[in-house]
Design goal:
Layout (H helix, E strand, L loop, with lengths): L2 H8 L4 H10 L3 H11 L7 H6 L4 H10 L4 H10 L5 H7 L6 H9 L12 E8 L4 H14 L1 H7 L3 E3 L8 E4 L3 E2 L2 H16 L12 E4 L7 H21 L11 H4 L4 H11 L6 H11 L7 E2 L10 E4 L8 H23 L5 H7 L6 H12 L3 H14 L3 H8 L1
Antiparallel strand pairs: 1-3, 1-4, 1-5, 2-3, 5-7, 6-7
Helix pairs in contact: 6-9, 8-11, 9-10, 12-14, 12-16, 14-15, 17-18
Length: 397
């Protein structure tokens, strides 16, 4: 029977029938013509069709062409010959250089000067590597490298609605210890290594455990005042040197000084326990797409302060610098209550509103840091981008 006759006959058959027919075809050229003709009709059985092909290169090309669920992509990877496994990973954008990653995580990591019981979490957003492919990558790592997999096994892969061609890696609860920082470095290297990209929608959201502030009115008020007064300069020092804040921040990381002013005015020293704090959050923290999001505070599933200002970067040192900034804000708020007189003079000077932006920056850094070398990191960041027009637009909002 001529191919045109077969195609005409198959047009009236069910998708399952057509798929099974294609699977049983031995001639590879004929099989590919039928796939090309009926691909949308048999799309739900594409995994079985691709699996029936005894040619690694063609399998790989078809995996690139059609959206295959990560579970089936992983199964198809298992059918690829050893000599073509790297081509499969490379062509699908899920290549990972294990030796390079191991070398990175062997490098020395310095702990931050903060209280050891503060917890932290990271959301690593990226583009050009869809959710299913990223899940496939994680499954492949699980099979191929125990050392690396054991570091990142508790991280979650999640879809990110603002990045339809991307996804995000979400950390478990981390702390200021070597293992936690190695986990972060490892995941950043994996994502960077997998041919991903960053765009203006990719935020580097950082969560700090709110439990460290407990239900202590004084600690929360120090923190709220710090957030309110410092917010204009936070936008200018929350990203690596020379990088301006992403344009999407006007929508997803809006200034929320008014929220903090309302919390200060209405919260005062009236927090007596969990319910008081929850009521304040419910009343005033109604939007999560703000610079410093408190909607999770007091919840059973997260209980974090989310800093949404920073852009995503794959540079480990810069992610740590971003985290250090936010961690020190929380850490200082705790120490000012727990250690009598700690930073009291510096804080009062910082609250003086009649000062230049540079003076505000210096006073803020004097509150949260002791080390002059740490302060220089953020001064340099500010100096490079302080006059960019995007910050004027943010202020207008």
């Amino acid at each position: 029977m001529e191919i045109n006759e077969i195609i005409k006959k198959l047009e009236n058959e069910s998708p399952v029938f057509v798929a099974k027919y294609i699977i049983n075809i031995k001639d590879i050229d004929f099989k590919l013509k039928l796939i090309n003709k009926f691909d949308q009709k048999v799309i739900n059985m594409m995994y079985d069709i691709i699996k029936s092909i005894n040619n690694d290169e063609i399998k790989i090309n078809l995996c690139k062409k059609y959206e295959i669920d990560y579970f089936y992509l992983n199964k198809l990877y298992n059918t690829i010959g050893a000599s073509n496994k790297n081509k499969f990973k490379n062509d699908l954008g899920i290549y990972v250089d294990y030796d390079k990653i191991r070398n990175e995580i062997k490098k020395d990591i310095n702990l931050l000067n903060i209280k050891n019981d503060i917890t932290i979490g990271f959301e690593i957003e990226f583009d050009k590597l869809e959710y299913d492919k990223f899940k496939t990558l994680m499954l492949i790592i699980e099979k191929e490298d125990n050392q690396i997999y054991n570091l990142i096994k508790d991280w979650k892969v999640e879809k990110e609605l603002s990045l339809p061609e991307g996804a995000e890696a979400v950390s478990p609860i981390l702390r200021n210890d070597i293992n936690s920082w190695k986990q972060l470095k490892c995941m950043l290297e994996i994502v960077k290594n997998a041919k991903t990209s960053l765009n203006e929608k990719c935020g580097g959201h950082i969560h700090i455990g709110a439990d460290i502030l407990s239900y202590d009115s004084k600690k929360w008020n120090y923190f709220w005042k710090m957030c309110s007064v410092s917010q204009p300069i936070l936008y200018k020092i929350a990203n690596e040197e020379g990088k301006i804040i992403r344009k999407s921040s006007v929508k997803f990381a809006k200034q929320n000084q008014d929220m903090f002013n309302n919390l200060i005015k209405n919260g005062g020293v009236n927090i007596k326990g969990e319910e008081d704090l929850k009521l304040l959050v419910k009343q005033f923290c109604t939007d999560k797409n703000v610079a410093i999001n408190l909607k999770n505070v007091g919840t059973s599933y997260k209980n974090t302060i989310e800093f949404r200002i920073s852009n995503q970067t794959f540079n480990f040192e810069e992610v740590v610098n971003n985290a250090r900034l936010y961690l020190k804000m929380v850490d200082t708020s705790v120490r000012m209550v727990d250690e009598k007189g700690y930073k009291e003079k510096e804080f009062n000077k910082f609250l003086n509103n009649s000062m230049s932006e540079k003076d505000l920056l210096i006073n803020f850094l004097n509150v949260i840091f002791e080390d002059d070398n740490e302060k220089k990191i953020y001064i340099k960041r500010w100096e490079k981008i302080k006059d960019n027009d995007i910050y004027k637009k943010l202020e207008e909002r």
